[in-house]
Specification:
single chain; 353 residues; six-stranded antiparallel barrel; 7 helices; 43% strand; elongated
Length: 353
């Protein structure tokens, strides 16, 4: 599992939009109406902004505790007065003080452990009713702290409450007028949002979420399409790239970039050189055949695809996302098989007769 995931954001709508990222609730609190969405991770993106915008999300959970003059509830701004990074299986003791005086809580790692995929928060016995009568309200939070801000959830803990959480790396990407660290309703967060989850929505630790000009969302595994070209400058300068662009122009720009999700190799062989060819330094061609499957349906009957500057011929099509291919060239079978793997970015071009 990658140590972090990147969600790339593209705004194709007609106006500037503020994108927010929320961590979905663990199953144990998914139906609790007193647990609120809490995020300070947002970024404003202009319409059709050509720059690169993204959230980088580390696989590092965070637990928090706080106390303030603000009661936990919708549209209330809440931040933890103490937070700690937490690993799975850890148990944390959240100790709240009785007022007066108005004091913040303490949050300490316990010597015990919980299930291997869970995190547990244990709240001490404290006089919640008297504290709140004095305008002193406790809060507790769970989520992920990122460079862009916190994304998680917040609730008001009850005395002697134990809460076991089994998190999942699933996120809502939403646009709207949410406030930073301001508690939000989950229905508002999830409605009209894009939901991305590990591993299905990601390829190579990345996915791209696009807000289309009709207000709908598009989710694609991997980095934005332009990265497939920009990350291989040698290909941009190559004859293969020139050929692909020329073919696209002649064929009314029929090209498609997609993410390879599965590769199956059928045969591999190396041509036999004559003694004269070996003497003159010729390199024997490698011949390979196989099948690839891509993430989205191919929009045309393509003749070939290119991965990192290497061209493969499409010999037949098996459904909307699977093609049979062949390779013939000077690179070794091992080199080609290490190049064409699940997660690779393939650019399709040409028209099959």
């Amino acid at each position: 599992m990658p140590s972090q995931y990147t969600i790339y954001l593209v705004n194709q709508s007609s106006s500037t939009q503020t994108f927010w990222c929320f961590l979905t609730r663990p199953a144990e609190i998914a139906s609790d109406p007193n647990v609120f969405a809490n995020s300070s991770a947002s970024i404003a993106i202009d319409s059709n902004d050509p720059s690169t915008n993204y959230f980088v999300i580390p696989v590092q959970y965070s637990v928090g505790a706080g106390a303030s003059n603000n009661a936990v509830g919708l549209d209330v701004q809440v931040t933890s007065t103490i937070s700690q990074n937490s690993e799975l299986a850890q148990v944390w003791n959240a100790d709240y003080a009785n007022a007066p005086p108005k004091k913040g809580p303490k949050l300490n790692l316990a010597s015990t452990s919980t299930g291997p995929n869970s995190i547990k928060l244990v709240t001490n016995s404290f006089n919640q009713e008297d504290n709140e009568a004095l305008g002193w309200y406790s809060n507790q939070s769970f989520g992920i702290q990122t460079a862009s801000g916190f994304m998680g959830m917040t609730w008001s803990p009850s005395p002697n409450q134990s809460r076991t959480l089994t998190p999942k790396l699933s996120f809502y990407i939403s646009v709207g007028s949410f406030g930073s660290s301001t508690l939000a309703d989950w229905t508002q967060v999830s409605n009209d949002s894009a939901q991305v989850s590990v591993p299905g929505s990601f390829s190579g630790g990345a996915c791209t979420v696009t807000l289309l000009n009709n207000g709908k969302w598009k989710i694609a595994p991997g980095k934005p399409a332009q990265f497939a070209l920009l990350e291989n400058l040698a290909f941009l300068k190559s004859d293969e790239h020139s050929q692909l662009m020329a073919m696209a122009y002649l064929e009314d720009a029929t090209i498609q970039q997609d993410t390879v999700t599965q590769v199956h190799w059928d045969t591999a062989s190396v041509a036999k050189l004559s003694a004269e060819e070996e003497a003159e330094g010729y390199v024997a061609n490698t011949f390979l055949t196989g099948t690839i499957t891509v993430a989205t349906a191919l929009t045309a009957g393509f003749a070939y695809f290119v991965v990192s500057g290497v061209q493969f011929s499409i010999t037949s099509v098996n459904g909307a996302t699977t093609v049979n291919f062949s390779y013939s060239g000077a690179q070794s079978a091992a080199t080609i098989q290490n190049l064409l793997v699940a997660g690779a970015q393939a650019i399709f071009g040409g028209n099959r007769p």
